[in-house]
């Protein structure tokens, strides 16, 4: 099967308990070369645990985990992977140049350090001690540490948290370029706009299982045409009964209604609630599609 030939990393029927509680429940997923795969889900869905298994930090209770066809704890597999974790520190006294040089030395075929630093512009920080970096600058250094070994699999855990808009878009462009060059990218993020902009495939996890595996466009299409937001006293059961409504539920102090026919829904809404206020209509975004998939109690909080 072509899928299997291009699979860089796989979890097959993996179950995992932590502190006696089931966290992953027969999870199967594949990460393929040349694709950005976004792993999304509400807090506690099991994303970090899945990444821990793929990177060899955790062992499955049952099922199989393979990285480049090998056990992920094998150095031959790990040396082909670059990982950018959310909560890693940097040694304060080393300069950025020294740190990238050190990290590059762990890989069999690293990029030249100057090239690593030049990707999306970090050369100006080369002489800066890591202890003097801002949060956003430190994230950019972490990204360079992840890519310095020319990884075939790049694991990015919330890569643009703490980045300003310009740095965020620069990082998106380098991630896209890496995927276009054939690198497999596994991205976990709570930023659904980021997943929409970057991902070829979105895997939605909930309660230790994959509940959707599709392109962002296909997921958006599945949600239907439009999202209607408004203030209304109508209860969700009545909103759900309006014409063409697929999902309805609270969104802060508003109600959010996903509908296949905004005009029909809004006409009925106006006649059902004379006190309707703050009515807004927009195309369904990935956020709306995932909200429809998970239900109102299982939101992905940015
Ligand atoms: N070391 C641990 N010991 C016990 N339970 C754990 C441990 N690590 C995670 N869990 C539990 O496993 C479940 C899945 O956690 P995980 O960190 O994989 O979720 P996540 O999808 O990454 O969540 P988030 O979006 O909040 O980062 C949660 O219920 C969490 O409390």
List the keywords.
Alpha-Beta Plaits; binds adenosine-5'-triphosphate; single chain; four-stranded antiparallel sheet; 302 residues; nucleotide-binding; Rossmann fold; alpha/beta
Structure description:
The chain is of the alpha/beta class. The protein has two domains: 2-219, P-loop containing nucleotide triphosphate hydrolases (Rossmann fold), CATH 3.40.50; 225-283, 2-Layer Sandwich (Alpha-Beta Plaits). The chain is built from twelve helices and 13 strands. The protein has helices at 2-6, 47-54, 75-78, 96-104, 113-118, 135-147, 165-180, 192-198, 216-223, 236-240, 262-272, 286-294; strands spanning 7-18, 21-32, 36-40, 62-67, 81-84, 153-157, 184-188, 201-206, 209-214, 226-231, 245-251, 254-259, 277-283. Helix 9 crosses helix 12 (286-294). The protein is globular, with a radius of gyration of 22 Å. The two termini are 37 Å apart. The model has no long low-confidence stretch (mean pLDDT 90). The structure holds adenosine-5'-triphosphate.
State the name of the first-level CATH class of the largest domain: Alpha Beta
Mean pLDDT: 90
Runs in which pLDDT lies below 50 for 5 or more consecutive residues are: none
Question: How many DSSP helices?
Answer: 12
In total, the number of domains comes to 2
The succession of helices and strands, N to C, reads HEEEHEHEHHHEHEHEEHEHEEHEH
Q: Beta-strand percentage?
A: 25-35%
Q: Give the overall form.
A: globular
CATH H-level superfamily of the largest domain: P-loop containing nucleotide triphosphate hydrolases
Strand order of the largest sheet: 5-6-7-3-8-9
Structural class: alpha/beta
Distance between the termini: 37 Å
- What is the CATH topology classification name of the largest domain? Rossmann fold
Residues in helices, as a percent range: 25-40%
